[in-house]
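Figure S7 source data.
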Amino acid sequence: MGAANKGTLVVKAGVKRLLGRVGFDIVRSTNHRQGVDDFLPFEATMRAARAAGLSVGDYLDDVMNGTPGATQSTIDKLGGLGVFAAAPRTVLEIGPGSGRYLEKTLKECSPERYEIYETAEPWAAYLVETFGVVARPTAGASLAATPDASVDLVQAHKVFNTVTFLVAARYFFEMARVTRPGGRIVFDVMTENCLDPEAVHTWATKGGPGHDSYPAAMPRRACVDLFASLGCRLEAEFLAPLGVASTEVLVFQKDFDTAG
Ligand SMILES: C[S@@+](CC[C@H](N)C(=O)[O-])C[C@H]1O[C@@H](n2cnc3c(N)ncnc32)[C@H](O)[C@@H]1O
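Tokens for the predicted S-adenosylmethionine complex:
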């Protein structure tokens, strides 16, 4: 068990029950930094998945989140867009957590290197051991250990709606920096397309308590314009389930004629 796991506080039982219903059971490190230290309790989640006879990813989808097949559906849509057919040699994932997208990504392609940036030490250690990925030092919003233009596929799922605007924005610059010309950038953000009045009402009445920064919204245009300014063109978008409502998955391709 890693140091971060030993130093965790279990949040109040009532809050945990409610968070469990919306797919967000968390522990919080005593070394709390800007909401980045909230993560699923490693041991308890693994135990529950084993008891249910499911992989941890399927346990999260089927039991905790009540959205069976949600991760596979996103992976299938990315497959349909040719993201995996491009045979990425290097993949980088921010905030893989339990590895539910990581595991399914590795079924679709065979990268030579899969880097992760994950603040939850017990999960990062588990992913390194189980899938042979490379865990990079993770300090808030930097991909400093990854050289410029070195990654074919950069992805983050259900991460940017759990961190502050500044953490997300800083990561966006870094994601554009490390992506190779022609490479893909895939992530989801809770945009205006996920926030009609009914969804806002659902969040306000049923979602989110007990977590400082969840769910965080991100203006879609700001996001798309920023990536365009960094030489990354929006290729596709689709909605996916998030907690009590939805999130928007955006797929960008970095221009072939940019080094930026
Ligand atoms: C809601 S979970 C999503 C996990 C996984 N991507 C999934 O969809 O199952 C958010 C993940 O991001 C991680 N995280 C939070 N802040 C981070 C940061 N600043 N850098 C990297 N990972 C972070 C958390 O530890 C957690 O594993």
